[in-house]
Amino acid sequence: MSVDYIVIGGGIVGLATAWRLQTMQPGYRVCLLEKEPEVGSHQSGHNSGVLHCGLYYKPGSTKAVLAVRGIRQMVQFCREANIAHEVCGKLVVACDDAELDRLHKLEERGRQNGLEGIQFLGREAMLEREPNVGGIAALRVPQEGIVDYPAVCRELRRCVEANGGDVQTGARVTRLEQLGGEWVVTTTKGDFNGRFLVNCAGLHCDRVAGLAGEKRETRIVPFRGEYYKLAETAEGLVRHLIYPVPDPQFPFLGVHFTRLIHGGTEAGPNAVLAFAREGYRKRDVNLRDLFDAVTYPGLWRFVAKYPRMTALELWQSLSKRRFCKALQKLVPSIRVSDIEPGGAGVRAQAMAREGELIQDFCLIRRPAALHVLNAPSPAATASLAIGEEIARKILSEK
Ligand SMILES: Cc1cc2nc3c(=O)[nH]c(=O)nc-3n(C[C@H](O)[C@H](O)[C@H](O)COP(=O)(O)OP(=O)(O)OC[C@H]3O[C@@H](n4cnc5c(N)ncnc54)[C@H](O)[C@@H]3O)c2cc1C
Questions:
Q1: Does some domain include residue 241?
Q2: Do 246 and 274 have their domain in common?
Q3: Does the beta carbon of 387 sit less than 6 angstroms from any atom of ligand 1?
Q4: Is the CB of 374 within 6 Å of ligand 1?
Q5: Which of 18, 121, 242, 334 is most buried per CB count within 10 Å?
Q6: Position 61 in a domain
Q7: Which H or E element spans position 82?
């Protein structure tokens, strides 16, 4: 049987897209193909669990627009579906005068992005909220919070299936062919036919685009993010979310503290180049992924342009003491014995041939396909808005 839409990838973006396609076009048939036994097995299930609201992003960029819209939609979705979440607010902490200047710019950017209720806190007001934080001032962003993203993925799957959609897990897409006006999608679970293809394959989105005949202009370069968790005895050091002022060039850099929705507090993640796209442990190596990365000129240009950043992140990955030092910038009293190894996630970061990281979300529309070629943080928060945008793009250009 041929369906109207085939969505590849059962992460939060693919699931939200499948659901939005159904709700914006009732009666249309959607089939979602996921290679793992469960949905949300990669980035969507290995992240910080934070609801980001679009404070950092360039005004007018797709990321800024969809993040601001997306957090409202996500909070409402969680409220209605009874999914664990908490809008606890976040502090972005400036530690010196240079960061203070950037903090003011960030405040202005937040306002330009339409965020309400952002508060500038001097040191005393900051300490009232987070008594153990270092630094000289902070921005409080009240609408941010924490959430159970794996539960969001499970609920989205339920919604897609309740609307008559077909979610196939254990179905890795290995070949794409256009025959007689429709796609024939070969998977490890058999063939599936559909009129329109949506590629939401996360860490493998560039490869899936390649299978569909796209030239791989950008490449996914995997950056592992490693976490520590606070020992029980150190839990009291952090009340909510504590973030550093981001480096505009690498907004995802800078370890932070995140309270988890089901208890405990995480510290991290760092961002170290990984030897496998699904390499959650330091020792994980995938020869195909490694070959793909080292034969891409963009990676070498990136390393040559940013050797300090690359080396520091590697050092931080190898040395607990160094990781702790980075955390002490935000919470000076934290000690090496206060942190224990935690989990890890791998970011699907698109990189251009010139070695630049693509910052914005990247959605490429083709006559019978749409490829999501970059959906880094905060794409989990913004997933419902991204799904809506994808459906709108498909419908408006029909
Ligand atoms: C360490 C880390 C921390 C983060 N923290 C946050 C945060 O706090 N808040 C936030 O909003 N965002 C955060 N993000 C970003 C967020 O997790 C991602 O942007 C989001 O999950 C992307 O979703 P996705 O569906 O595009 O990708 P994924 O969740 O990776 O899903 C892609 C799916 O495609 C499947 N797939 C791939 N290839 C194939 C194939 N050939 N056939 C079939 N299926 C295939 C994969 O198995 C996978 O399930 C974080 C990311 C990381 C890594």
A1: yes
A2: yes
A3: no
A4: no
A5: 18
A6: no
A7: none
Q: DSSP letter string over 168-188?
A: ESS--EEEEEEETTEEEEEET
Q: Kindly report, residue by residue over 190-199, the tens digit of the pLDDT.
A: 999 999 999 9
At 235-269, the pLDDT tens digits run: 999 998 999 999 877 777 889 999 999 999 999 99
CATH classification at residue 286: 3.30.9
What is the number of domains present in the chain? 3
β-bridge pairing 30-33 and 166-168? parallel
Ramachandran angles phi, psi of 268, nearest 5°: 130, -165
Q: Is the CB of 270 under 6 A from ligand 1?
A: no
Residues 346, 380, single domain; the answer is no
Cα(84) to ligand 1 centroid in Å equals 20
Q: What are the b/e assignments for 28-53, b being 16+ CB within 10 Å?
A: bbbbbbbbbeebbbbbbbbbbbbbbb
Closest-lying ligand 1 atom to the alpha carbon of residue 344: 1
55 DSSP assignment:
S
Token output for 372: 């999501």
Parent domain of 104: 90-142
For residue 201, how far is its CA from the centre of ligand 1 (angstroms)? 8
